[in-house]
Amino acid sequence: MRIFRNVVIEGLNKKPILTDIGFLKNNKPKPIIIFLHGFKGFKDWGHFNFVMNFFIQQKFVFIKFNFSFNGGTVDQPLDFPDLEAFGNNDYIKELNDVESVLNWINTNTLLPTSEVNTHCIFLIGHSRGGGIAIIKASEDSRIKKLVTWAAVSDFISRVPDVEEWKKNGVIYVENTRTNQKMPMYFNFAETLLSNQERLNIEMCEKKLQIPHLIIHGTNDEAVHFSEAENLKNWNPSANLFLIQKANHTFGISHPHLSNEIGSQAKSVLEKTVHFLKGN
Fold first, then answer.
1. Residue 193 contacts by C-beta under 8 Å, 6 or more apart in sequence?
2. How many domains does the chain have?
3. Count of CB atoms within 10 A of residue 155's CB?
4. Torsion angle, CA of 195/41/108/16, rounded to 10 degrees?
5. pLDDT tens for residues 179-192?
């Protein structure tokens, strides 16, 4: 198994995208999975390294990365040392990062051409990353399959009081795990409101021309499972898999120090790999 950690990709946002890449070296071209983390997330959260190893063993090339404005830095990729970057993030920047990673796949010198099938790229997105994955998959023909875990079905409805936000210039979201009050500057709302057509997840889901697997827990406290049902209603050909009593992270928390995962998280991986290996 070959794993390259904290590789820097220079992205469209002119800010480094810290990336992990892994594969089994067997001189056979393998499909590529790009994994997108969610809001207040990062590539090394919880069991994401376990997830990476799982898919590598299943003979995929696996790529996970920190969104360039997620609040991490090259020197400190865990958690959120750069709250100013976090505060200046927006959905267009995240779509730019996915574009940058997709472009890197075809231009890098790290992945041997004998090991990768660049014509077979899949996206997996969790939570907000699932919404970003849906949008990108709807507009980029390089993506051949899509899997979303606990994905949001709408961005607009999540915008708090716009007038109050505009007046103050910033709102704060609390991170109870790190005890941080994390800023979100008004440019986040401005960018969303001025790009509503592109960032309309419903329209993107309806436009999808590729297979989509939707996985969601029925006890999700952050994104209600009715949002998964929305996606299925908009795209009847999508596959919907509800995990009974599972929460937003399928029973995983951070840090995840065990070499094992619970039955709910295992079910997510097994269902995902079966879908991605299917015809």
1. 159, 162
2. 1
3. 18
4. 80
5. 999 999 999 999 99
